[in-house]
Amino acid sequence: MNKMMALIGSLLLLSLCAFRVNSYAVDKVRFAYISDSPGSSAPYWVAKEAGLYKKHGLDVELIFINGSTRGIQSLVAGDIEFVGAVGTSAMNGAMAGGDVVIVDSLVNTLPYYIISNPNIKSPEDLKGRAAATHIPGTSADFALRLALRKYGIDYRDIKAVMVGGATARVAAVMNGQVDFTMVTDSGKIQGEKTGLKVIIDMAKLKIPFQFTCTVASGKLIHEQPKVVEAMAKAVAEAVHFFKNNKNATIRIMAKYTRGLNPKVIEGSWVAYNELLEEDTQPTLEGLKDTLAVQASWDPKAAKAKAEDFVDLRFVNNLKRQGFFDNLYGRSHMSRN
After folding, report:
1. Which of 18, 41, 150, 211 is most solvent-facing, going by the fewest CB within 10 Å?
2. What are 92-107's pLDDT values in tens digits?
3. Model's pTM, two decimal places?
4. Tens digits of residue pLDDT in 199-242
5. Are 249 and 115 spatial neighbours (Cβ–Cβ below 8 Å)?
């Protein structure tokens, strides 16, 4: 009898141990994406729907938080573990004292267009004109400032009218309140349907800018580096999936944008197929340029260094391991 009880006890212990292993095999994390427009957040959706988070041992709850600043605030508050944010919001969160670190990147340039009424013929004609702008510090605001800078126009040389979101900005140009504004793909398509035209295609200019990036806390990086590494792998594979599975990706984009016009979704897929970074490497050059622009009104930006806002160990490790080379079928060359 004693032997039987001992055997039963051993079996129970083994089953409990097995349960314990299984219950901790997947790390549960909350990930916030900050835009339900097609394009910049799509790889995060793809990673969920294609099972790439699970492949790398993550049980991810995707949460929509409208706006990069709100997403960073939620990260700082500890409500989420990761957020797909705009680099400016991540930097501002860190400069405000938040425990905020960029760990990888999706887009390293500005996928924006300056659209205008037909009376404007060239970028140089923007000088002295009225522009519908967004809140200072947003990606749209930086895009406008950097585009003007590219053509030798100081921000003070335009009449900035702060309007807000893309839909309102396009409407302001359409009804004649202002002469031009800055929009992404969906706003461009909307504007062109009403007779507005593209004056500057910033994606073609390839101005370095940290647009969409994955952000975590320094605490998470220190305490659970394997979780961050798994996220970096899942995001990298999602970019590859996006680029190589058009129809499946468009279906996922349609789901998360809740039935947006199929032509707009396909147009965004085409654009972001070129824009997404295969090696998910953040752009230090873009961060430096952003700090230089922001330094004109923010003393903290003047003192900050781009390297202070990133932890490149995860993408660099993936490069050294040949992870990206294997994904894209490239011959692997070791990198330091």
Report:
1. 18
2. 999 999 999 999 999 9
3. 0.82
4. 999 888 888 999 999 999 999 999 999 999 999 999 999 999 99
5. no
Inform me whether the pLDDT recorded for 15 exceeds 80: no
Q: Phi and psi of 145, rounded to 5°?
A: -60, -45
Three-state secondary structure call for residue 160: strand
Provide the terminal-to-terminal Cα distance of the chain, rounded to the nearest Å. 64
Reading the block at residue 209, the tokens are 């800018």
Distance CA 255, CA 285 (A): 35
Write the CA distances from 218 to 85, 115, 223, 227, integer angstroms.
Answer: 16, 39, 9, 13
User: Quick one: which of 44, 85, 103 has its CA closest to 237?
Assistant: 44
- Report the DSSP beta bridge partners of residue 85: 213
Could you tell me the strand order of the sheet in which 130-133 lies? Answer: 159-162, 130-133, 180-183, 113-116, 197-201
Alpha-carbon dihedral angle through residues 220, 99, 35, 41, given to the nearest 10 degrees? -40
Sort 227 into a burial class: Cβ within 10 Å, 0-12 / 13-18 / 19+.
Answer: buried
**Sign of torsion over alpha carbons 225, 227, 232, 236:** positive
Per this entry, what is the length of the chain?
Answer: 336
Token pair listed for 236 = 């990298």
From the number of C-beta atoms within 10 Å of its C-beta (0-12, 13-18, 19+), residue 261 rates as middle
Residue 208, burial from CB neighbour count under 10 angstroms (0-12, 13-18, 19+): middle
Return d(Cα 273, Cα 89) in angstroms, integer. Answer: 24
Virtual CA dihedral for 71, 41, 105, 204, nearest 10 degrees?
Answer: -120
SS3 label, residue 84: strand
